[in-house]
Amino acid sequence: MVYQIIERLLEIDQLKEVPRNQLEWLVEKSDCRSVKQGDYLFKKGAPIDKMYIILHGHFILKIQQNNQFRVIGSLEEKAITGALPYSRASIATGIAEAAENAEVLALDKTYFKEMITDYHELTTAFVHVMSTRIRHFTKLQQQNDKMMALGKLSAGLAHELNNPSGAVIRSARMLRKHLALLPEEFKKVIKIKIDDQQLDIVTDLLFDKIKDGVQHIPLMEKTDREDSIASWLEEHDFNDGYEAAENFVDFNFTEEDMDTIAEQVNGKDLVPVVNWLNQVLATEKLVNEIEDASQRINDLVKSVKSYTHMDQAPEKQPANIHTGIDNTLTMLNHKLKKAHINVIKKYQEDLPKPMIYISELNQVWTNLIDNAIDALEDAEHKNLEIQTKQDGSFVKINIVDSGKGIPDEVKDQIFDPFFTTKAIGKGTGLGLDIVQQIISQHNGTIDVDSKPGRTEFKICIPIA
């Protein structure tokens, strides 16, 4: 039996150069286990205290996200998994379920010290396995992190685009319905007899009001003025006075303006003229709403383009730090509004433009601001403060939140790869590791000060 297992181990690429006597030691110290189809090699939360070599069969790897298990890969025949020499992993984060009846060699990690001391080739082989596993896991987690970031970005865009696009559709439908009423009103208008001077007074008044645009009047004052205009309209035989009064007040018409119009128009022609004026104002307002909503969509698309820097080569160039931060805030605006977070900007207006990789640094702002939003979830006062200033030949950026703070016992670990205090599905533990890598890529530094009610990430980037 031992001979057969050793022959099986020699078929594994990572172990085929290991001396036979060391493989004999491995088999002697290990247990050979049978795992039935549907049973588990390990479960979530179990201690990682054994190394496993799969001699026969294969296992499905799953992790739990949002109360459901998701398949993330498999362990095939000849795979080496579980605890490895020098590995710091201690608790399983997922499960390995047997897809068929399997045979597994299990070595308890208590034998690692003896192996490291006396069996160097065997130890080296397993260290190489660990290095490969780290590279693979890092690549997988980075991909997951990018997909999560893309998901957040997509959700934010969908949310931010929903309101202006809905406004465009709503205003366009109202405009179509509104324009359908114009022919009847036009027939009444062209029958009116009015001299050029009178016409000029009315049209000059109208287009002066349109030129000034819709006015933002305090609610109480606006209500009083609408009542006044509505009463005037009804006194002059105008139907639906209150509906038309809103348009006239929006464009700052007063009772005196309405009297001016009445003075220039024959009594029987007053209603058609006022109807025509109301139609022009309503059309203007709907067109303005469509233009404003379209501009918001255009601004958002520009922010996305600038944020991703999709139209530029990935090279360092002088850039406005504030533009990147503001674009990031635009991308995350839906989360900021949903959480009722107060954003405070303390920007140095004449801040120099450092040489940076724009898209990469936007990832820094995204990770730090997104983390701050999460930290403020249960905070009593929800403030996010962003400070920028020049300090000699450096630019300093501080991102401060009023959340619960980072516990002292984990403060030294927050930049470690895969370390996270978030629940599964909410974070990969790569965000701050990526932030640190990008800041280092810019020859800069990042530090954190934290206490309950104030966490401050301090970034320093050279200008040149």
TrEMBL record:
PROSITE patterns with a match to the protein in the record: CNMP_BINDING_3, HIS_KIN
Enzyme Commission numbers on file: 2.7.13.3
Catalysed reaction, written as an equation: ATP + protein L-histidine = ADP + protein N-phospho-L-histidine
CDD domains assigned to the protein according to its UniProt record, in alphabetical order: CAP_ED, HisKA
Domain Cyclic nucleotide-binding: 14-116
Coiled-coil regions listed in the entry: 362-389
Pfam (any one): cNMP_binding
Keywords of the record: Coiled coil, Phosphoprotein
Domain spans labelled Histidine kinase: 284-464
Keyword Phosphoprotein: yes
Keyword Phosphoprotein: yes
GO molecular function ontology, one term from the record: phosphorelay sensor kinase activity
EC class name: transferase
Positions of transmembrane segments: none
Protein name per its UniProtKB record: histidine kinase
